[in-house]
């Protein structure tokens, strides 16, 4: 089948790569896909949003709910987020799926907040997450980044939260490429100093920390942090550029995964992880290899607009009936970017129904005046 794309007239589409749902989750690595949300007319399209989570669970992946992939801080308000957490928590219980949920401070108004207000906002969100039996992820807070005068303020807020959680939680270091408002998180723009502050916090509260998600797009720094973690604390890679090598690991250890890119590549990710379970590193590399150029394109600068590509691919693959996003974010990427995304997803064999993908791509290009 051929399709005319900007810069690639007569592009010949590839055959899809079929990966059947496995019997259960992979066992050698813990893996979560940060899931997107499907916009509705007034709120979310709950049927499509929850159906996509069932899709992820069917491939043995855990769901990372209400994270930045779900447009936290980019269109999704706390009222809707709270409902999303409750509904997804109930769905996880019904499906027997693993779930972690992001706790933040985004119910606070924009602008200055005190450390007391920030801690109380985290506590409100933690209570909702713990009420549905999910593992909390203490997300990086824009309010805390603005209010903190140094690492001691981060230690005070996080220490207060960790002292009261009912189960071990996941910490979250989201770099400024994902959210510029988080520059200087952990008390310094010097990444060595920030890493030291984070490791000191983890060392003091290790029994209450399941792991830490690192989203810095810096494989070397992630490996260094991984090797310095206390025993029993996981490193969840959030590196959507270098995930195959970080998950594979080396003789000194490996990263587990909490990744936005696992949303669009879930079947391939599950197949690769099961190959790793079997010690078949050749198949692991062969399956993951074609997804890396796609991921690097998806997360190219400005990285925080990767969500637009994630939802576009969900539409092209038939997981939702429209390409609209909360807050109108569907307009955030250019036509050439989206055309390139289509080609890279096709090259990775990610379109289970090439006819549908081509039909929808042609329709979208027509609306953009690029057909």
Automatic annotation (TrEMBL):
UniProt region (Disordered), positions on chain: 1-26
One Pfam family in the UniProt entry: DUF993
Record-given protein name: Dihydrodipicolinate synthase/N-acetylneuraminate lyase
């Amino acid at each position: 089948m051929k399709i005319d794309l900007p810069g690639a007239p007569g592009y010949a589409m590839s055959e899809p790569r079929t990966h059947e749902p496995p019997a259960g989750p992979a066992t050698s690595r813990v893996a979560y896909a940060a899931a997107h949300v499907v916009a509705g007319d007034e709120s979310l399209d709950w049927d499509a949003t929850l159906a996509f989570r069932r899709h992820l669970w069917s491939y043995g992946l855990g769901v990372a709910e209400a994270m930045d992939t779900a447009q936290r801080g980019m269109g999704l308000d706390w009222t809707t987020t709270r409902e999303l957490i409750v509904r997804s928590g109930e769905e996880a219980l019904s499906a027997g799926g693993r779930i972690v949920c992001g706790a933040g401070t985004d119910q606070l108004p924009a602008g200055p907040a005190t450390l007391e207000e920030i801690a109380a906002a985290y506590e409100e969100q933690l209570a909702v997450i713990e009420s549905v039996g999910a593992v909390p992820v203490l997300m990086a807070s824009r309010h805390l980044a603005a209010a903190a005068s140094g690492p001691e303020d981060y230690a005070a807020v996080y220490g207060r939260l960790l002292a009261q959680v009912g189960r071990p939680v996941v910490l979250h270091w989201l770099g400024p490429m994902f959210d510029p408002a988080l520059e200087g998180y952990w008390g310094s723009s010097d990444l060595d100093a920030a890493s030291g502050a984070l490791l000191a916090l983890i060392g003091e509260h290790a029994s209450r920390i399941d792991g830490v998600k690192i989203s810095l797009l810096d494989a070397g720094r992630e490996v260094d942090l991984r090797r310095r973690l206390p025993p029993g604390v996981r490193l969840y890679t959030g590196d959507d550029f270098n995930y195959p090598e970080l998950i594979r690991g080396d003789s000194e250890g490996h990263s587990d995964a909490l990744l936005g890119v696992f949303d669009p590549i879930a079947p391939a990710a599950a197949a690769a992880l099961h190959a790793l379970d079997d010690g078949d590193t050749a198949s692991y590399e062969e399956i993951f290899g074609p997804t890396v150029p796609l991921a690097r394109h998806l997360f190219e600068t400005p990285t925080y607009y990767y969500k637009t590509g994630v939802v576009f691919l969900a539409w092209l693959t038939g997981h939702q009936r429209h390409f609209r996003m909360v807050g109108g974010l569907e307009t955030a990427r250019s036509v050439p970017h989206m055309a390139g995304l289509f080609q890279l997803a096709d090259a990775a064999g990610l379109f289970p129904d090439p006819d549908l993908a081509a039909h929808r791509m042609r329709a979208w290009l027509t609306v953009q005046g690029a057909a």
